[in-house]
Amino acid sequence: MACDGGPETGVTMTDPAGPADSSSPTDPTDPAVTTRPTGPARDDALFARGWALASPVLERAGLARARRKLVAGLSGTVVEVGAGSGATFEHYPPEVTRVVAVEPNRLLRERARRRADCLARTATDTAGRPRIEVVDSVAEALPVGDGDADAVVFGLVLCTVPDVPAALAEARRVLRAGRGDLTAGELRLLEHVRADGALGRAADRIAPLWGHIGGGCRPNQDTASLLAGAGFDTAGLRTRPFPPVVPAMPMLTGSARVAHSA
Length: 262
Ligand SMILES: C[S@@+](CC[C@H](N)C(=O)[O-])C[C@H]1O[C@@H](n2cnc3c(N)ncnc32)[C@H](O)[C@@H]1O
Prior knowledge:
The chain is of the alpha/beta class and about 260 residues long. About 30% of the residues lie in helices and about 15% in strands. Strands 1, 2, 3, 4, 5, 6, 7 and 8 form an eight-stranded mixed sheet that branches. It is globular and about 50 Å long. S-adenosylmethionine (SAM) binds near residues 102, 138, 156, 157 and 160.
């Protein structure tokens, strides 16, 4: 049985706030909620519906394979930032014991919860499935203690996060520090970035409209520079064309750890 998160329940396109989320009420005293950066105005319901429609096509066209590579070899506790509808959940290797999946969009979060529940229910080998906690929070305020994460996963999300330097500082805070023989925790990335040349200039031109219909997504972000500015060593990252997505958007993929000098 496929665990795809299923359709949203009780939501119409005219309900941008989405349905009541009884399993995780938004607590106005929660710092992750009150300090949440808002970014440009955007229609979360429209984006959630659009992403739900586009995802199966993209998965079949190569995104599923890219997700498997994104999380291959990870172990322990992973923080997945902007988990969307949880399309990466099924790809975590058995060595990952816990996934804290952060998702601020209520509709996508509901789908992610359903997917996590379904994966847990249908698991034939429960020992090999991570415990997946889907949490209402944002990249800029991760609900995880200092040094508690073995890895932080960003998949198609840094392009949308309103405050990328704050998000990367949070990732640094929660990643395990290296000690003795223990290597430091790592970032894993699958992020579309600004292309060079004419395609990059075209991305600059379409950026305002793209952001409006794409949930705030910036098609022309130089994510590698932002990572370097946040103290991450980007030598392990590669930029590759990704055919299923608009060719103006090459993908930055791989692993990054805090630079020794940072
Ligand atoms: C293009 S979707 C990708 C979803 C998922 N990672 C995937 O690969 O299917 C971008 C995601 O980033 C989330 N997002 C936007 N702003 C965010 C923030 N400040 N913190 C965390 N996630 C955010 C959106 O809600 C959305 O789920």
